[in-house]
Q: What sequence folds into this?
């Protein structure tokens, strides 16, 4: 009887280890993640609007049809980015993801407290190179540190009624994601 319990325990332990390894490795080996699917459509450091999802086809998984969506596929190797997203009357959110689809920051219109969401996106090394300015406080500019040099920024604007979808899309059409000019003018 004890021998059977030991075999059962060993099998359960081995199955748990195999399951854990598979769950941790699969996202790194997936070839059709969100970044890969958007690469042919979205130029680097440019905002593009995503088509409305249908039951048969959605570019990103679990996309809510009540939201207009836009993405910016970013690359910080050339320097920091300035992201500007106007606020929709209903609701606007911005989410940041690494190249491997790990969410690391999100902000919405309620927490932004302004007419638009405006921030600088940079790596930790780029943040360390920033000069300390006495007249600019951290409340005056929002700086988001990216854990990787490439990734996705997903912007969403709510259309509470189907007739308001053009308004939500127009808000996202004014969003920008462009390299921040450096102090030497580049």
A:
């Amino acid at each position: 009887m004890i021998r059977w319990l030991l075999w059962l325990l060993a099998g359960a332990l081995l199955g748990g280890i195999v399951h854990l390894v598979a769950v941790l490795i699969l996202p790194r080996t997936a070839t059709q993640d969100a970044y890969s699917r958007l690469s042919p459509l979205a130029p680097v450091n440019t905002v593009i609007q995503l088509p409305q999802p249908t039951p048969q086809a959605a570019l990103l998984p679990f996309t809510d049809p009540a939201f207009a969506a836009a993405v910016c596929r970013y690359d910080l190797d050339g320097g920091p980015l300035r992201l500007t997203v106007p606020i929709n009357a209903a609701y606007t959110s911005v989410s940041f993801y690494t190249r491997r689809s790990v969410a690391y920051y999100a902000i919405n219109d309620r927490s932004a407290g302004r007419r638009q969401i405006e921030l600088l996106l940079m790596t930790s090394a780029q943040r360390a190179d920033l000069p300390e300015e006495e007249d600019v406080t951290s409340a005056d500019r929002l700086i988001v540190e990216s854990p990787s040099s490439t990734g996705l920024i997903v912007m969403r604007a709510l259309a509470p009624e189907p007739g308001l979808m053009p308004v939500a899309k127009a808000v996202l059409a004014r969003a920008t994601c462009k390299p921040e000019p450096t102090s030497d003018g580049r």
Notes: The mean pLDDT is 86.
